[in-house]
TrEMBL record:
Keyword Cell division belongs to the record: no
Organism: Nonomuraea composti
Record domain Penicillin-binding protein transpeptidase: where: 262-621
Presence of keyword Cell membrane: yes
Protein name: Penicillin-binding protein 2
First-listed, main subcellular location of the protein, grouped into a coarse class: membrane
């Protein structure tokens, strides 16, 4: 037994020595033979790619004046890594910061969150290894307090950064659009030109390679690829004309009493370019700067008037009597004499229903020129009844560009509607069950007994015969009522084509795109979408008739005292009736009547008659554009005639 003990001890020493030799060999292999490979792998595991956002390009008006640009504004950044290494993970620092900025603590905390599939905005979509902007547009005083007290704000910095600036405030908000966080740490266009020309404006982001330690602290920068600034978009918008249009529209909506919204469009009839485009109510695009709160977002999208909706391109209304240029052209094409004599009684009976003139006025015998001037309905009812067997009026409406989007370079454009027998049948199939249910149950929630009875009768008729295209449908179609729907931009385009001799453009807001150094990258030219299927003589006849409307027709009151001798305006009023609601007011126009340069269209929802709200607004726009009635001209001299 005693002899075996030294042997065992020797064996243990041998085993320990062998293990030690193996360990030394492994260390030599790792550190010497494979040292470079493991070093590279260790470094690679901690290399992070950080996106460097590009400076966004500008949007300019027709005269080179900025509508949207960038300005240096103090921005407060929080280093997420540094905050999370603090004992309370940065909560006390954020609370002190919220107090200094006068902002809710939760707002700053939410901006620090990393975005994920189930994370709601606001959150941070960029790299966690770069400073996160938690407050933009901070005042110089607050920023200096933070910068001068680093011991109170560890992990917090304040420095100037470019933010989107609108030097003319909310002007042209629906044209410009707004910016909101995208998939990365930069902002992207979400509406208007900011969205349409996003790829031009955003530039090309750069990148930075940084090495971080196991705690996420940045150790050094390995390399950087600089960002390329975005291009400049030059538009055909004239900022001065835009301001005139917005003031006139806002005043028209306010003065109309029960009006809730409206829109206005100014087109260059010779080129198809958009000179001004406005909608009411509007909003300030800078409300999105730094992230929008839920309350503000609800107000913009579902509050009174839904200000975010660009009604000039997305709003839909029956065009009422402004539509009669379509019906006149259709009647002429069908063989009716433009200078023939037609009776305009107070009402016209179709089947078992009488269709009344506006106000029930009996206007006597007249030609179609006078019918347009005084806006006789019953003459067009007669045409509709006689043409009802075909699609002559629908074909003409489509020839004027209705029923399809204009193709304008703004997002979300509505196509409008040109109803016909096929559409009515399809719509009936979609709504039959709802109509039949309402025919049985009525409208108990409706407090007005007469209105409830009317709605129930309509539902019963739709349930039983809603698929039939009737002579009454044709009559409503002929005067732009019933199921006809257009956008203000569609109507402006149609009147621009009537004014310019028949060329139907696809309107454009942008005029050219220029690089950061000012070099021209490309021109944006409005394409020709087609030609009106109307002879030149008919177009001239209608232009002549519309020139009389502000003088002795339905817009005479609105244009009383206007210097038509200096600027002859041609136009057409429209009063779209809706059961149980105020009428929608329209006025579509172009000028100078003899040699048209611009088309101006205004609609005021629930604004009353066409001559009551829309026509006065159009008068104000023409006065402002041309410097009439004591106003300074918004248009430069070379663009007035």
């Amino acid at each position: 037994m005693r002899r075996s003990q030294p042997f065992r001890l020797l064996l243990a020493h041998v085993l320990v020595a062998a293990l030690f030799l193996v360990l030394l060999g492994r260390l030599w292999q790792v550190q010497i033979l494979d040292g470079e490979r493991y070093t590279a792998a260790a470094v690679a595991d901690h290399v992070r790619h950080v996106v460097v956002p590009a400076v966004r390009g500008r949007i300019l008006d027709d005269r080179g004046r900025p509508l949207a640009r960038n300005k240096a504004a103090m921005t407060v950044f929080a280093d997420r890594v540094a905050l999370t290494r603090q004992p309370d993970r940065g909560r006390a620092t954020l609370r002190e910061l919220a107090k200094a900025l006068g902002r809710p603590y939760k707002d700053l905390q939410d901006r620090m969150r990393l975005c994920g599939p189930r994370t709601r905005q606001p959150c941070w979509a960029g790299s966690p290894y770069e400073p996160i902007p938690v407050a933009e547009g901070v005042g110089e005083r607050e920023a200096m307090q933070i910068a001068e007290r680093p011991e109170d704000f560890p992990g917090i910095t304040a420095e100037p950064r470019p933010v989107r600036d609108h030097p003319r405030g909310a002007l042209a908000a629906h044209v410009l659009g707004y910016l909101a966080p995208g998939d990365s740490n930069d902002l992207v266009g979400k509406d208007g030109l900011e969205a349409t020309y996003e790829s031009d404006l955003r530039g090309r982001p750069g990148s930075r390679k940084v090495v971080v330690d196991s705690a996420g602290q940045v150790l050094r920068t390995l390399g950087e690829q600089p960002a390329t600034p975005g291009a400049t978009v030059v538009t055909s918008i004239d900022a001065d004309v835009q301001a005139v249009v917005e003031r006139a529209l806002e005043r028209a909506v306010r003065k109309a009493g029960k009006a809730d919204s409206g829109a206005a469009v100014v087109l260059d009839v010779r080129t198809g370019r958009v000179v001004a485009l406005a909608a009411a109510p509007s909003y300030d695009p800078e409300i999105w700067t730094g992230g929008i709160g839920e309350a503000d977002y609800r107000r913009l999208t579902s509050g009174a008037g839904s200000p975010l909706v660009s009604r000039a391109v997305q709003g839909l209304w029956p065009p009422a009597s402004t539509w009669k240029v379509v019906s006149t052209a259709a009647a002429a094409k069908a063989g009716y004499d433009l200078r023939g004599r037609y009776d305009c009684p107070g009402s016209y009976r179709i089947g078992d229903r009488s269709f009344r003139n506006y106000g029930g006025a009996d206007l006597g015998v007249m030609d179609l020129r006078r019918a347009l001037v005084v806006s006789c309905d019953t003459i067009f009812y007669r045409f509709a009844e006689r043409l009802q067997g075909g699609t002559a009026m629908q074909d003409m409406a489509r020839g004027f560009g209705f029923g399809v989007a204009t193709g304008v370079d703004l997002p979300g454009e509505a196509a409008g509607r040109v109803p016909d027998p096929a559409w009515k049948k399809a719509y009936w199939k979609q709504t039959k069950d709802r109509s039949c249910r309402a025919a049985r149950t009525g409208y108990p929630q409706e407090k007005d007994a007469a209105r409830a009875a009317y709605l129930k009768a309509v539902a019963a008729e739709n349930c039983a015969h809603g698929y039939v295209w009737t002579a009454g449908d044709a009559a409503n179609f002929s005067i732009g009522q019933g199921d006809v729907l257009v956008t203000p931009l569609q109507l402006a385009r149609a009147y621009a084509a009537l004014a310019n001799g028949g060329t139907l453009f696809s309107p454009r807001v942008a005029k050219e795109v220029r690089g950061p150094d000012g070099t021209l990258l490309r021109e944006v030219t409005p394409p020709v979408a087609g030609r009106l299927p109307v002879p030149a003589a008919t177009l001239e006849f209608m232009r002549d008739a519309l020139a009389e409307v502000p003088r002795s027709g339905t817009a005479a009151g609105a244009f009383d005292g206007f210097p038509l001798g200096k600027l002859p305006v041609a136009g057409k009023t429209g009063t779209a009736e809706a059961y149980g609601a105020e009428d929608t007011s329209w006025f579509a126009s172009f000028a100078p009547a003899g040699k048209p340069r611009y088309a101006v269209v205004v609609v005021v929802s629930r604004g009353g008659g066409g001559g009551e709200a829309a026509a006065p607004a159009v008068r104000e726009i023409w006065s402002g554009m041309y410097g009439l009635e004591g106003r300074k001209p918004a248009l430069p001299r070379d663009k007035r005639w």
